[in-house]
Write a structure and sequence with these properties.
The protein has about 325 residues and is an alpha/beta fold. It folds into two domains: about 60 residues; about 210 residues, Rossmann fold (3-Layer(aba) Sandwich). The protein has twelve helices and seven strands. It has a seven-stranded mixed beta sheet. Helix 3 packs across helix 6 and helix 7 packs antiparallel against helix 8.
């Protein structure tokens, strides 16, 4: 059936109301209405629903573009033919964005090439579709920008932009050791966002290694050169997490609990991207109960840790 002709005066009126994009689908909708004998109310609702959906899609695309998200890294573009096993329950939980509503954080761990960036950006796209403002940054670029902002006194403005966005995705965190100033920047970012807004952090290092990459933390636990310092004994040697466990240490470590408890931290293991969900407590994960660096600010707000470095212990 031929498309219905549109009255020129209607075209002019729609454009004056900034509804000109309705004309893209209006002829087909008029034909459909005539074929199904729709009432005028139903036709008007159908046309306006099309316009609302179009505007929502455009707004989401604009937010994703402003966030720096890759348009090819969307969940619907996931290659289902790839040999990847993952925990569908965890993925569904993350896609629900409940962690975002609760101002929780997600950490995605794993070696290069397993899809950490894809998963984090896919979640960013979903957040954009739900009306959230998102920002995607590489950790090294973020730290470089903050370092340069000190030269023109724009650091405060840059930090506000990092802390005020609904969701920030920090990619490839802790690849290289951080300077003292970079450690302070990361600590401030994590501290100000914890409990107020969400973060997704990807890294190929375990969270227990993040402390070692922080100059601020390393300087706190550096061994004393004072000749009067008593010799190191077996009770004051470095703990398995690499932190000084002596009474002088500002970063005390604690033994893991005898029984694992369901806590804030849900860990997923997978041989490629996402894996089975295994509840772990922060102490089991190698995080001291009191961290002096950036890890301490974010420890209590981790919603999920996706660990892609190990094969799944069970399948679904």
């Amino acid at each position: 059936m031929a498309a219905a002709a549109i009255n020129p005066e209607l075209v002019t009126a729609l454009k004056r109301l900034k509804l000109g994009r309705i004309l893209d689908t209006l002829p087909e909708r008029l034909v459909l209405a005539d074929k199904q004998k729709m009432s005028l109310d139903d036709l008007l609702l159908l046309v306006l629903t099309d316009e609302i959906a179009r505007r929502d899609s455009t707004a989401a695309d604009n937010r994703a573009r402003d966030a720096g998200l890759d348009p090819s890294m969307r969940l619907e573009l996931w290659d289902k033919s790839s040999k990847v096993t993952f925990d569908k329950r965890m993925l569904a939980e993350l896609v629900s964005l409940r962690f975002l509503e609760a101002h929780r954080h997600v950490v995605v761990l794993g070696p290069v090439g397993v899809g950490k960036t894809f998963v984090s950006q896919a979640l960013g796209h979903i957040a954009c579709r739900h009306g959230y403002n998102v920002r995607f940054v590489r950790a090294d670029a973020m730290l470089r920008t903050l370092r340069q902002s000190r030269l023109d006194n724009s650091r405060d403005a840059e930090m506000v932009s990092l802390t005020s966005v609904d969701l920030i995705v920090v990619d490839d965190f802790a690849l290289e050791p951080m300077t003292k100033e970079e450690s302070k920047d990361v600590y401030q970012l994590f501290l100000e966002r914890t409990g107020r807004a969400s973060m997704i952090v990807t890294s190929n290092r375990d969270t227990a290694e993040w402390l070692a990459m922080s100059t601020m933390c390393c300087s706190r636990r550096a061994p004393s050169t004072d000749s009067r310092t008593p010799p190191t004994t077996s009770s004051s040697r470095a703990s398995p997490t690499g932190l000084d466990s002596s009474p002088r240490s500002m970063l005390p470590t604690h033994p893991p609990p005898s029984q694992p408890t369901r806590h804030d931290l849900t860990r997923a293991r997978d041989d490629a991207d996402l894996g089975s969900s295994l509840p772990r407590s922060p102490r089991q994960h190698g995080w001291p109960a009191h961290l002096g660096g950036a890890g301490g600010a974010v420890k209590k707000s981790i919603d999920a840790v996706i660990d892609t470095r190990h094969p799944p212990s069970r399948s679904f």
